[in-house]
Amino acid sequence: MVDVNASWRDTAREAKLGPFNVVAFLPLVLFLFSISWTTFSILIATLILLQVLEYFGFSPATFMRFFRSKIAGKRRLASPWWM
Predict the structure, then answer these.
(1) Distances (CA, A) of 51 to 28, 76, 80
(2) What Å distances lie between residue 50 and 23, 36, 44, 46, CA to CA?
(3) From CA 5, how far away is CA 8, in angstroms rounded?
(4) Can you tell me the distance from the alpha carbon of 20 to that of 30, in angstroms, rounded to the nearest whole number?
(5) Structure pTM?
(6) For residue range 13-55, what is the model confidence (pLDDT) as tens digits?
(7) Are 19 and 53 within 8 A, CB to CB?
């Protein structure tokens, strides 16, 4: 059923199924194909990590950009190092 009150602005929202981000379902599928304590612990660790990121206001893509900028450091070179 189509929601007639939905706005085009809702198209930019991240995909969620319940309280969990869609990224969390990759370990879930892995767990369902190979049921073991190891895959269960990977699933739980991933869910906890994503919930902590969401608590601090990060989506997985935003956190990766933030992490990459922290690794790169404050100094940005205007020309490549090999020139």
Answers:
(1) 15, 32, 38
(2) 8, 21, 10, 6
(3) 10
(4) 16
(5) 0.67
(6) 777 777 777 888 888 899 999 999 999 999 999 989 988 998 9
(7) no
Secondary structure class of 20 (helix, strand, coil): strand
The residue assigned the tokens 């608590």 is 55
16-17 and 20-21 beta bridge pairing: antiparallel
- Give the sign of the dihedral formed by CA 69, CA 75, CA 79, CA 81: negative
Tokens 């940005």, residue? Answer: 76
Question: Phi/psi class of residue 73: alpha, beta or left (left: φ > 0; alpha: ψ in -120 to 50)?
Answer: left
DSSP secondary structure string, 21-45? Answer: EGGGHHHHHHHHHS-SHHHHHHHHH
Q: Are residues 15 and 22 in contact, defined by beta-carbon separation less than 8 angstroms?
A: yes
Helix, strand, coil percent values for the chain (each to nearest 5): 60, 5, 35
